[in-house]
Specification:
Blueprint: H1 3-21, E1 25-33, E2 36-39, E3 56-57, E4 76-77, E5 100-101, E6 104-105, E7 110-111, E8 116-119, E9 123-128, E10 131-136, E11 142-148, H2 158-162, E12 169-173, E13 178-185, E14 192-199, E15 208-215, E16 218-227, E17 230-239, E18 242-251, H3 253-257, E19 263-269, E20 277-281, E21 293-299, E22 302-309, E23 319-327, E24 340-344, E25 347-352, E26 359-366, E27 371-381, E28 384-393, E29 400-407, E30 413-421, E31 427-435, E32 438-447, E33 459-463
């Protein structure tokens, strides 16, 4: 073979590889500056904004899928394992009906609840519906709140201050010891915003750096991952009710931690790509220097991983490569096309399994000798619903599924899980549980490093529900 023909072969292979890597990206990299930013007064001194009047039910925007029906689940766990979940050392009441804090009483006036929270160095922040509160994590005492979420943007002006639209995230940047809080502002016309605030210290009641980033379509279901080089955030983009595909953006973390003008670098995926989750760093060991962030989604009996490298200096050097596809055990989405099938005690009202996407977070941990990601979603488990979970390894190289399982030890419905690993490799999985003989409740289970792969242990109940969700608020 001549030198010329060898060169031609290399060029063809390179072009083919590039087309595969970017086949699911629509358009070039997009770089935009925050449309607004400022520095707040100490939150503890800010007068809470008034809550929105009345009750509101926020519509769920489901993502259309074309997954093929699956054969019986080969990794279905129908009995609990032997590892016993650790006993809860302490607990305290969070936001809910009957809760009262320094700023008054919690009012449940929106559905779905979008319940989430994060643990900081000395505090716990919880955001439910459209209100949040700050707790002392040792005593459990509420030290601030509950207040409407847009109180965090009081004095900021515009839709971030005016709207309290929800879909919030409360996160803690463990490497910087800062809080990261975000919700969207999308109603009332005038564009679609993501409102983001970074605390100046580890005290959530102190001063905040506040930002607003703009999008030309509805930025639904924002999910944020903390990474050394950026805050990565993903959205499900909609034009009206039509799914346009996920969007992945990297926000300039170093600038935002300093309260400086910041930009975002975004890629829009095709509508054929299912919702993405960004990797979120756990533990004290960062990923290797220069590691991209990892984005994961699922398809018919597979997981797909993308690698997002951002360059804020020369934005055209930013890339997303992938998908790196990993076959998984056969599964069917929970509740079929409607996504609604979870029964409850005492009512015919069924609940949404939100099974058309992976569940937040995609938790990353660097163990030194290997890197792991854990994630979960809700799938059909016999005649009920169970939680399918995965541990992925070597995301920076050739990612593969190290272990997987479907936790469904009886005929109750388990769904909408949240999973993470600790520094020695223990896995904890929390989830909802319900049936026609049980009110919706919350439980968790665990796996120790020496347990059989794909097997979880006994269940521990965090709280037993005393009521069911009715058709109206």
């Amino acid at each position: 073979m001549s030198a010329r023909s060898v060169f031609g072969t290399i060029v063809v292979v390179w072009i083919f590889s590039l087309s595969v890597a970017f086949a699911q990206i629509h358009g070039p990299v997009e770089v935009t500056a925050a449309v607004q930013h400022d520095v707040s007064e100490p939150l503890r001194n800010v007068r809470p904004l008034p809550p929105q009047a009345g009750h509101r039910e926020v519509p769920l925007y489901h993502v259309p899928h074309s997954l093929l029906p699956a054969s019986p689940d080969p990794v279905l766990q129908t009995r609990v394992g032997t590892t016993t979940a650790p006993v809860t050392v302490s607990s305290f009441d969070g936001l809910g009906i009957g809760f009262s804090g320094p700023s008054g009483n919690f009012s449940m006036n929106a559905a779905p609840p979008d319940t989430n929270g994060a643990v900081g160095s000395t505090q716990y922040v919880q955001w439910v519906n459209d209100s949040f509160a700050v707790f002392d994590k040792v005593t459990g005492a509420a030290v601030y709140g509950p207040v409407p979420g847009n109180t965090l943007w009081s004095g900021f002006g515009g839709k971030c201050e005016r709207n309290n639209d929800g879909d919030p995230i409360a996160q803690y940047d463990k490497a910087a010891n800062r809080w990261v809080m975000t919700q969207f502002a999308v109603s009332g016309g005038g564009g679609f915003l993501e409102c983001i605030a970074i605390s100046q210290t580890d005290d959530a009641t102190g001063v905040w750096y506040r930002y607003a980033f703009s999008y030309n379509q509805f930025n639904d279901y924002p999910k944020l991952g903390v990474w050394p080089d950026a805050y990565y955030i993903t959205f499900n983009m909609f034009q009206g009710s039509s799914y346009q595909g996920p969007r992945a953006c990297a926000l300039d973390r170093s600038k935002m931690l300093a309260g400086l003008p910041a930009t975002q670098v975004c890629f829009q995926f095709a509508s054929s790509v299912n919702p993405l989750l960004p990797a979120d760093l756990d533990g004290a060991s960062p990923p290797l220097v220069g590691s991209p962030n990892y984005l994961v989604t699922y398809g018919t009996n597979l997981l797909s991983l993308y690698k997002f490298h951002v360059d804020f200096v020369t934005s055209t050097n930013s890339t997303i490569t992938g998908p790196f596809k990993m076959s998984v055990a056969a599964f069917s989405e929970a509740c079929g096309d409607s996504g609604i099938c979870i029964p409850q005690l005492g009512t015919s009202q069924l609940l949404d399994a939100l099974s058309d996407r992976l569940m937040y977070r995609l938790a990353y941990r660097n163990f030194g000798d290997h890197e792991s990601l854990v994630v979960n979603h809700s799938i059909t488990a016999g005649s009920a619903v169970g939680v399918r979970w995965y541990e992925l390894r070597d995301p920076s190289g050739s990612p593969f599924v190290y272990q997987q399982g479907t936790f469904a030890p009886d005929s109750d419905y388990r769904w909408m899980g949240s999973i993470a690993m600790d520094r020695v490799g223990n896995i904890a999985l929390g989830y909802n549980i319900s049936s026609d003989t049980r009110n919706p409740s919350i439980r968790y289970t665990v796996r120790a490093p020496g347990d059989p792969l794909g097997q979880l242990g006994t269940e521990t109940q965090i709280i037993g529900g005393t009521g069911s969700q009715l058709p109206t608020l």
